[in-house]
Write a structure and sequence with these properties.
Layout lengths: L6 H74 L7 H25 L5 H27 L9 H11 L4 H43 L2 H40 L14 H27 L15 H66 L3 H7 L3 E6 L7 E8 L2 E9 L3 H21 L5 H15 L13 E9 L4 E7 L3 E5 L2 E5 L19 E4 L5 E5 L7 E2 L4 E2 L2 H11 L4 H16 L8 E7 L1
Helix pairs in contact: 1-2, 1-4, 1-5, 1-6, 2-3, 3-4, 3-5, 6-7, 7-8, 8-10, 10-11
Length: 609
């Protein structure tokens, strides 16, 4: 039996050599590093003590000593210089005594818990006890000279000068404290210097020990080279053939046959390569046979790979079934083709019929538009009733449920914005009822009060739509704003059903609210509309509108325009000429709407006084 250098032997040999070198290098490095560990520990302990205790203690003692010296100077100045208590120097002395020095003293006391020298602790304790006594003397001085007038008291000033004088109690206490802190400072400075020398010495010793690791670094480099060689050997003998097999499998998974054949080696991977070559050849034969069957070549020869080749036998069975299926399908296609031709002819007849019907309906609606527009006042009539005004009218469909109404009776100009239930044809029918109702109320019944006009209109709508009959009544109505303007008396009267009136005067916005019930929504006589009277001024501008503008969807997020946005737009343009206002409002709603569909009829009327 010939020798086979199998995958297990290859991996075992490579890793065995690698592990041997690792053990050698690790052992040598362990002994070298272990010698330097104690030095590092000693160095680390000294460094921590120096950083966390000795140096901060020295700096805090120096800070405490300097603050006490400043307090002494300020206390002497308190006595010598006559001044008020709110001067910066006196305020500073209070801060030092009450806050700064006690805080520093507390920090030094906390640090002293880590001192190893008991003499240093005793020195600080003696100084700490004297500090409170010294502060008592300073407070006596403050009590003797509490304000500017107290300096005129000779006895008090003399006593204060004695306390802080050269031989005074405060001076003596300060000198004792200062001497103790100076001695403590010198001791800490010496400890700091000794610690720095120790750290430097330890670092030099550690450096010398680790320089001996050069030999082990060389061994480590050799180990790296050996590892690289082992990796190259493993890659060439194991990884590379596996990658070739992977490439073949991935290609087969994507339905692509490999163009190059796999090299066969004398190991387990070679066995897999031989099996893969056989699999690829079998799949190619199967694919070629499937193509022939797909092209209806059912006589193409094919031999399964073995008796256990489930796929091959399934393909032979599929070929026979497809041949029979194709024969049946050809017959069905012939029958269905005849049926499709008959159905196509019928569909064409129905399409032509629908086109004729659509044309008739569209022509009728366009004629209805002519009828509806006949009730709208022409531009000349609007200019005669309200000289300085505009009307922005944008129906959603060919005909509209919104309409505007202008008239002039005696010295009063009537103006109305009406929004009927629905839009399109239903809304247009309601607009005809509304226009007739307004004309009947004003011209036939001689009603000029807006509230009374709306009451008359409600009765007219109820009668016209048989609202009183349970069987025939419809649930339609209208929202509107109606106002009369007396240009000579400069007086406005307004009444509304759900739709308010906006008035802008001197950059101030006023909303005159409407009654919250629609025309045609209640029995005549059960409710009454309210008339509002407003004194006008030259330059005032009023707006009447339906809900279509504010309810339009659009913008970046497809939301409604909303009334607040509408009022902001009116405030921004109200000083412009009315023709410019109309254009601006139209451009704004077009830009807001963008690609969204118009959801309702839009009507905005503006009148400048």
């Amino acid at each position: 039996m010939s020798f086979r250098f199998t995958i297990g032997k290859k991996i075992g040999t490579g890793f065995g050599v690698l592990i041997l070198f690792i053990i050698i290098v690790f052992g040598a490095t362990f002994f070298a590093v272990n010698n330097g560990i104690e030095t590092f520990k000693k160095n680390d302990s000294t460094s921590n003590e120096l950083i966390e205790n000795i140096t901060p203690s020295k700096e805090k003692v120096m800070q405490l000593k300097a603050s006490l010296g400043e307090a002494k100077r300020l206390a002497i100045q308190w006595v010598v210089v006559q001044s008020r208590n709110d001067t910066p120097d006196k305020v500073r002395l209070n801060v030092l005594i009450d806050k700064n020095i006690p805080k520093i003293k507390s920090e030094v006391a906390h640090l002293s818990q880590g001192w190893n020298n008991q003499e240093d602790v005793d020195l600080f304790n003696r100084a700490e006890g004297k500090i409170d006594t010294l502060f008592d003397y300073y407070r006596q001085v403050m009590d003797l000279l509490p304000d500017n007038a107290s300096y005129d008291d000779g006895f008090g000033r003399f006593t204060a000068e004695f306390i802080v004088g050269q031989n005074g109690d405060a001076t003596y206490a300060y000198e004792v404290i200062d001497q103790n802190l100076l001695t403590l400072q010198n001791s800490l400075e010496k400890q700091e210097k000794d610690a720095l020398d120790l750290v430097k010495k330890s670092s030099e010793e550690a450096k010398a020990k680790f320089q001996a690791l050069t030999l082990y670094w060389i061994l480590g480099a050799i180990l790296i080279i050996v590892a690289i060689l082992i990796a190259i050997f493993t890659t060439r003998t194991i990884v590379k053939p596996i990658r070739s097999l992977k490439h073949v499998l991935v290609s087969l998974g994507r339905g692509i046959f490999p163009k190059e054949r796999i090299a066969v080696t004398n190991d387990e991977i070679g066995d897999m390569s031989t099996a893969m070559i056989g699999l690829v050849d079998g799949l190619k034969k199967t694919t070629d046979f499937a193509k022939e069957v797909g092209q209806s070549n059912f006589s193409s020869p094919y031999q399964p790979l073995s008796n256990e080749d489930v796929l091959g036998h399934a393909l032979l069975k599929m070929r026979d079934e497809l041949a029979e299926t194709e024969r049946i399908l050809e017959q069905k296609v012939k029958e269905r083709t005849e049926e499709v031709v008959r159905q196509r002819d019928e569909n064409e007849r129905q399409r032509l019929k629908l086109e004729d019907l659509y044309k008739d309906v569209t022509d009728s609606i366009r004629y209805a538009k002519r009828l509806q527009y006949s009730i709208l006042p022409p531009t000349e009539r609007i200019a005669e009733v309200c000289p300085d005004s505009f009307v922005l009218f944008k129906p959603k469909d060919i005909v509209s449920g919104d309409f505007y109404w202008f008239d002039k009776i005696g010295g009063k100009s009537f103006c109305a914005s009406v929004d009927c239930t629905g839009h399109g044809v239903p809304g247009a029918f309601m607009s005809l009822v509304g226009a007739n109702g307004l004309n009947a109320a004003v011209k036939e019944h001689n009603t000029i009060d807006p509230g009374d006009v709306l009451n008359e209109l409600n009765k007219f709508v109820s009668d016209s739509l048989n609202k009183g009959s349970e069987d025939n009544g419809v649930r339609d109505g209208m929202d509107l704003s109606l106002c009369t303007i007396d240009y000579e008396k400069m007086e406005l009267q307004y009444a509304g059903a759900n739709n308010p009136l906006y008035l802008i005067r001197n950059n101030e916005f006023t909303i005159i609210k409407a009654d919250k019930f629609a025309i045609g929504s209640f029995e005549p006589g059960t409710k009454h509309y309210t008339s509002h009277t407003v004194a006008l001024e030259k330059g005032d501008i009023i707006y009447l509108f339906s809900d279509g503008y504010a309810d339009q969807f659009g913008g970046d997020k497809g939301k409604k325009f909303l009334y607040k946005h509408f009022r902001d737009e009116l405030m921004a343009i109200h000083k412009e000429p009315v023709a410019v206002q109309k254009t601006r409002l139209d451009d704004t709603i077009k830009k807001w709407q963008g690609s969204y569909e118009q959801v309702d009829d839009i009507l905005v009327i503006g009148v400048r006084i």
